[in-house]
Design brief:
alpha+beta; Ribosomal Protein S5, domain 2; four-stranded mixed beta sheet; about 35% helix; globular
């Protein structure tokens, strides 16, 4: 006998079946220099689950560009179990994918706090949505 279908999904995000639903390399912070620049020239926002640092993205011609990029820092202090750390990173990336249009040309680093390992999926999603809005307000120059 087949299992009964689920009535409600626990995933707080709607899946987008578009090319923007991916996380390509140009959307990632890849090197130590990029992380250092964000930490050095930062504006930040945080709550009990995450701390977000951001800096305007600068291209090779030293002009701000419009594509947001994301870097993640989820240490063993958050959870000794890799499964939990990877789940947190997946949730952060999904929230970023859904919000990257409004983030514009920011380079963002998210540092997870230990409470993130105990948080509910919906709580993490709500927390990240609030933090994205705060970063846009604080870091975008008029």
């Amino acid at each position: 006998m087949p299992a009964a279908p689920r009535a409600v999904s626990a995933w707080p995000f709607e899946y987008l079946a578009t090319p923007d639903a991916t996380f390509p390399k140009y959307c990632r912070l890849t090197g130590a220099e990029e992380y250092s620049r964000v930490f050095k020239n930062r504006c930040n926002a945080g709550d009990a689950l995450f701390v977000c640092y951001a800096a305007p993205k600068v291209s090779e011609q030293t002009r701000p560009t419009e594509q947001a990029r994301l870097g993640l820092a989820v240490s063993r202090k958050v959870s000794p179990r890799a499964v939990v750390r990877n789940r947190i990173k997946r949730l952060i990336r999904e929230s970023f994918r859904q919000s990257k249009q409004k983030l514009g040309g920011l380079d963002i680093v998210i540092v997870a706090r230990p409470q993130a390992s105990k948080a509910d999926v919906t709580d993490m999603g709500k927390s990240l949505q609030i933090l994205w809005g705060l970063l846009v307000k604080k870091c975008k120059k008029p």
